[in-house]
Write a structure and sequence with these properties.
Layout lengths: L11 H9 L3 H5 L3 E4 L5 E5 L13 E6 L11 E8 L2 E7 L4 E6 L2 H6 L19 H9 L10 E11 L3 E8 L2 E8 L1 H6 L1 H14 L10 E5 L8 E5 L3 E2 H7 L7 H20 L12 E4 L2 E4 L21 H17 L19 H4 L1 H4 L7 H9 L10 H12 L2 H141 L1
Antiparallel strand pairs: 1-2, 2-3, 4-5, 5-6, 7-8, 8-9, 9-11, 10-11, 12-13, 13-14
GO molecular function, one term: protein serine/threonine kinase activity
Keywords: Kinase, Transferase
Protein name: Dual specificity protein kinase shkE
Length: about 550
């Protein structure tokens, strides 16, 4: 094959450099190469057989940058998965882990979802049990290092009789983890061995309608292996119960049944009998179905889904018929349970499921297919391949297209209603927001007015307090002044009384003096008179 150049310009230099250091014989067999965005390394897949089948020997590390100082040349291919038309490759070693998603040219052109085999690890990854890793690596099982997986045992998805499924984290990928029920693992060694054999069986199963296993890991808290697989939304039973459409649109019924039939055909082509096909073991994601529960090889299936014979591929086709009834009617099919008369003790399976079949319209395209699957004679039932073919023909019918169009229109109508409701809600929210803003504004104004009134009240109270204190001070001063005035009045009165007394005394003295003066005057007059008489006598 000619060498495929990388389409992205920025990787051309690295690819050219890689070509200079690679022999022409190797370049001749290169199907495609990928360059990591951080330019750490360039990987290539070298097909040995079919373009859609790869083994670990087909993958080479072609170049690595020394700057990273990560020993990527010793990296092991731990696993890969199919994502639509791309291959997701996970390289890992003791120092680093890198994940890249690439699209081979063959898949780009064909657009097919081909089945790919699991890559086997060339170097065993880190695990809690080195001996288990070594043994499982020899068996072709990819063992995932415990450090790369985080099992959330408290986030239980399903707690069954034999196994527990919980959420987990593998690198950056949300996934599911399945392990033997702790109580069962203590007392039933064959269940653990059976579960391990089922895990080994899954490693060679790669189909878009089979739940994808990533690998297994071991943990000291769990007996036996922990199967790491892709995380689905819910099982078909819950999907049918929770669906708001009653019944499901015809195209949805056919799509779900077609997905199960294709997965069943792949299992039968690999000589695998599911033996427990029912709505709890069919998982749904994005409206499409995948078969799960392939890990048990010896568990007995549900009685309602159990055929009259046991054990070949035809029992899965019988279970498919019961499953199709479940999808069409959205009710778990239940066989007749009434007590039969001796002459009627032998009845065929179609009669046994008469209650469920009566709920299916005679013109429904799935009715005859379901009846054929419930045939008592196992070899007269349609094979999985025939189921796929008949369902494919139904998918090309006008009824399928009409159902698809009706569902599309219904979806658009629902979307318009949702949009209209959202717009109305948005408008109401805007009006409510405006009203709320107005109320908030009024509340703020009210609070401001109340705060202002409170401030004014406090100021007034302070003023009153100050006036009261000032009044008390004035009253004190007035009282002091009054007292002082009274004291002065008293003093004045006392002074006046003293002065009056002094005046009276003085007046009395003056009077006495006047009296004495008058006496002196009289005496003087008498003296003068006497003197005059004396003088007159002298003369």
């Amino acid at each position: 094959m000619p060498t495929l150049k990388l389409q992205m310009e920025k990787y051309r230099t690295e690819l050219g450099d890689f070509e200079q250091h690679t022999s022409a014989e190797v370049l001749k067999n290169i199907q495609f190469a990928i360059a990591q965005p951080d330019s750490v390394a360039i990987f290539a897949i070298l097909p040995q057989h079919n373009l859609n089948q790869f083994a670990v020997s087909d993958i080479r590390l072609l170049k690595h940058k020394i700057a990273e100082k990560a020993d990527l040349e010793q990296a092991a291919v731990s696993t890969y998965m199919i994502v639509e038309s791309s291959v997701k490759i996970i390289f890992s070693n003791s120092k680093c882990t890198c994940t890249r998603t690439v699209t081979p040219p063959a898949l780009q052109k064909s657009g097919s979802r081909s089945h790919m085999r699991q890559m086997r690890p060339s170097v065993s990854l880190l695990s809690s049990s080195a001996s288990e890793c070594s043994r499982l690596a020899e068996d072709g099982l990819p063992v995932i290092a415990c450090s790369q997986v985080k099992v959330h045992q408290h986030k239980v998805i399903m707690n069954g009789d034999s196994a527990v499924i919980c959420k987990a984290q593998f690198l950056s990928l949300s996934c599911a983890a399945k392990y033997i029920h702790p109580e069962l693992s203590k007392c039933s060694k064959w269940q653990v061995e059976d579960f391990e054999r089922g895990c080994k069986l899954l490693q060679n199963i790669r189909h878009p309608n089979i739940v994808l296993p990533f690998g297994i890991c071991y943990d000291e808290s769990v007996v036996g292996p922990i199967l790491i697989m892709e995380l689905m939304d819910l099982n078909l039973k819950d999907f049918l119960e929770k669906s708001h459409q009653s019944p499901l649109p015809l195209h949805s019924q056919l799509d779900l049944c077609s997905d199960v039939a294709q997965g069943l055909e792949y299992l039968h082509s690999n000589n695998i009998i599911h033996s427990n096909l029912n709505a709890t073991n069919v998982l749904v994601k994005g409206g499409r179905a995948k078969i799960g529960g392939v890990t048990s090889l010896q568990l007995v299936c549900l009685v309602s889904h159990l055929a009259v014979e046991f054990y070949n591929e035809d029992i899965d086709c019988f279970s498919f018929g019961v499953l199709a009834l479940h999808v069409v009617t959205r009710k778990m099919p239940q066989p007749l349970t009434k007590i039969l008369e001796p002459e009627d003790a032998t009845i065929n399976e179609v009669t046994r499921y008469k209650i469920s079949l009566d709920k299916v319209d005679d013109n429904h395209p799935m009715r005859q297919l379901t009846v054929d699957c419930l045939n008592d004679v196992s070899f007269q039932r349609p094979s999985a391949g025939e189921l796929c073919k008949r369902l494919s023909e139904m998918s090309k019918s006008a009824g399928y297209r009409k159902s698809q169009m009706a569902d599309l229109l219904s979806t658009k109508l629902v979307n318009l209603q949702i949009k209209f409701t959202q717009n109305a809600i948005h408008k109401n929210e805007q009006e409510q927001r405006k009203l709320l803003e107005q109320l908030q504004k009024k509340d703020e104004e009210k609070r401001e007015a109340e705060m202002k009134m409170e401030v004014d009240r406090e100021n007034m109270q302070n003023t009153i307090t100050m006036l009261t204190l000032h009044n008390k001070d004035l009253e004190g001063k007035v009282a002091a002044a009054s007292k002082e005035l009274d004291d002065k009045k008293t003093e004045v009165n006392k002074i006046s009384a003293d002065e009056a007394e002094k005046t009276a005394t003085m007046l009395a003295k003056i009077k006495d003096l006047e009296t004495e003066k008058a006496g002196y005057k009289e005496r003087a007059e008498e003296a003068d008179s006497g003197l005059a008489r004396y003088l007159s006598q002298q003369h």
